[in-house]
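Inverse folding, one chain.
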């Protein structure tokens, strides 16, 4: 093959870069379906303790918690609470203490760690009432949907009223921001049901102000996994 002798001038190189950049931006902007965290329940920019930032309460560009593998550059104090978990005689799954992303959710939502406890600071703004799931006042997740358990085809077979996650396709999200795939790839986290299986913390695929991945209308969220 004959070697090319084409030489770009400075202006030509600049224009080529601009054209390529524009092409890449156009290509990926067509794929951008994510929502915005602005204005959601997880937007704390109006709080003085964030300094007008959105991400800082959970994430940091420098000095993140290296022991947290389920969320990048974690910045918030992690709960050390022990919970009474959901359990009934009809339960086929094995429920242990919350782990993964659920433990990070509970690091604000269990009411034992302040919202403004991040970046090494000890805060004083705590969630209370209905938003404090598994709060210190009750020390219990016994009346909440079980989390941090393995949901696989074996469990679906044993239960008899769950869809097999590997082969059941579902659609999450609202109009214009939808994603379709198997339960295993769309709802679960490392094969487990977690808080974020139902609640979309970053509002990427959300159907309501409660940051739900699937609408509660007609119990659609429940029926995503439960075969009733």
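Residues assigned per position:
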């Amino acid at each position: 093959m004959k070697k090319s002798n084409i030489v770009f001038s400075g202006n030509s190189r600049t224009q080529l870069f601009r054209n390529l950049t524009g092409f890449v931006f156009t290509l990926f902007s067509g794929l951008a379906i994510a929502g915005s965290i602005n204005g959601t329940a997880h937007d704390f920019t109006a709080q003085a303790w964030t300094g007008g930032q959105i991400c800082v309460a959970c994430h940091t560009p420098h000095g993140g918690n290296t022991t947290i593998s389920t969320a990048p550059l974690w910045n918030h104090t992690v709960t050390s609470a022990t919970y009474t978990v959901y359990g009934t005689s009809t339960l086929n799954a094995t429920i242990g203490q919350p782990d993964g992303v659920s433990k990070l959710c509970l690091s604000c939502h269990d009411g034992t760690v302040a919202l403004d406890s991040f970046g090494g600071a000890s805060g004083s703004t705590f969630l209370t009432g209905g938003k404090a799931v598994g709060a210190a006042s009750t020390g219990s997740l016994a009346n909440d949907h079980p989390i941090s358990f393995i949901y696989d085809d074996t469990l679906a077979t044993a239960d008899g009223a769950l869809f097999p996650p590997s082969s059941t396709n579902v659609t999450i999200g609202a109009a214009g921001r939808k994603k379709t795939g198997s339960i295993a790839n769309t709802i679960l986290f490392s094969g487990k049901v977690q808080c974020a299986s139902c609640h979309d913390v970053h509002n990427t695929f959300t159907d309501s102000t409660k940051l739900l991945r699937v609408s509660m209308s007609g119990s659609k969220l429940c029926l995503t996994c439960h075969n009733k």
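The first strand starts at residue 149 and ends at 150. Residues 55 and 72 are 11 Å apart (CA to CA).
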